[in-house]
Amino acid sequence: MSSQTVKTIPKRKTREEILELSAPLFARHGYDGVSMRDVAAAVGLTQAALYYHFSNKDQLYLDAVAYEFREKEAALKAMLAGNGTPWERLERFVAGLARMMATDKDFLRLVQWVLLDTDEARQSTLAKQVFRDMFVAVHDLACELDPHQDAHLLAMSIFGLVIFHFQTGATRKFMPGHRPHQDDPEVLARHVCELLRRGLAAADGEAR
Amino acid sequence: MSSQTVKTIPKRKTREEILELSAPLFARHGYDGVSMRDVAAAVGLTQAALYYHFSNKDQLYLDAVAYEFREKEAALKAMLAGNGTPWERLERFVAGLARMMATDKDFLRLVQWVLLDTDEARQSTLAKQVFRDMFVAVHDLACELDPHQDAHLLAMSIFGLVIFHFQTGATRKFMPGHRPHQDDPEVLARHVCELLRRGLAAADGEAR
DNA sequence: GTCTATATAAGGATAGAC
DNA sequence: GTCTATCCTTATATAGAC
């Protein structure tokens, strides 16, 4: 029945599929490490078809990264929403961020690529788009936690404490004192929160 | 007079020059972002000449990174040597690392590229070669600072607190609360040491 | 040691049929 | 929307002269 072309249903499906399948490629190999041929092969199309959906490789990359980041936006915001004391919210955020970094390696790697990007325009676009909201929220939280500190530095330190552990994930296992349970995001979150709360002062009265 | 060929004098000069000039290129654009043509142009040779000194691009890259890392090794070790209380040594190290990261952007970027490398062999080689000695020293220092904590996690946190600030250097200026003096390595070092010493407990008796 | 010239492959991108 | 076919550029690497 119905010889009429049923073209209203699968509309725009391909474009999203391209973004979804190319994002992991860019995450693993970076912009220069992925060719249009690679993307086409992953999606199951020819190169030429990609140019129907995106004007060029740069645009495809930019959209793929933005797509991946948009996917994470809701989750990231949820971590910082809600109520409770500043410390409770900090603990919730640190635990959530750690869990996300442990779970979605591609997202972490895309962040790293963006940080290494030398294209000013591309970097500022993506930075503002992804990092800014996130940073603002943590920045405000930092203000509440300790009004006397530099909130900018403190917010960055909070991110760094969590993210750096996962950035070094692959090389950490060659370092002394490594034990598997340190890869557990909950263990890391506890470590970070404890450090933020009291520093090293918790220990016995070691020299100053 | 000696008609014998006097080949002992200018030996190996070109090879080192290639390494010295290509390392900044790889630092800025990564392995895939630099072609043999680029390197040749930077050194003032033709592509073909590069293959006299290195068997292929991979080897050139590996040697260039190792060369750059070896250059930094002495400076890094000096930071951790010497005597004093653990806290004094920590402060000296944090300040030195911050200054190095602020000064030598190329070195920082090479570290980031290595962390993103998906080639297991290449990564483990470089990681052990550069990071390990460094990490061991900080790890031992962490043990002295607080024997009750996980020294592995603590050492990584110390690195992360310093390095992450510089990794985000280019994007930090788009974030709220940014002021130029935060880029000063001394300011950062003080912030990090203060955080490590007392955490946020320094503030007034905020909740918990 | 470095050059010129070239082989061979891979890359981004477009034209035009269907 | 997707294909085939193709163009042009850039890339790694080698051969052989000097």
Please, could you describe this protein's structure?
The structure is a homodimer of 208-residue chains. Chain A is mainly α and 208 residues long. The first copy, chain A, has one domain (13-198): Tetracycline Repressor, domain 2, CATH 1.10.357. Chain A contains 10 helices and no strands. Chain A has helices at residues 13-29, 36-43, 47-53, 57-80, 86-103, 105-116, 120-145, 151-167, 169-172, 185-198. The first copy, chain A, starts with 12 loop residues before the first helix and ends in a 10-residue tail after the last helix. The interface between A and B is large, with 73 and 73 residues. Chain A binds a DNA duplex (18 and 18 nucleotides) through residues 14, 35-37, 45-49, 51-53, 56-57.
Question: What is the strand and helix layout of this fold?
Answer:
Two copies of one chain form a homodimer.
Chain A: H1 13-29, H2 36-43, H3 47-53, H4 57-80, H5 86-103, H6 105-116, H7 120-145, H8 151-167, H9 169-172, H10 185-198
Helix pairs in contact in A: 1-2, 1-4, 1-6, 4-7, 5-7, 5-8, 5-10, 7-8, 8-10
Chain A binds a DNA duplex (18 and 18 nucleotides) through residues 14, 35-37, 45-49, 51-53, 56-57.
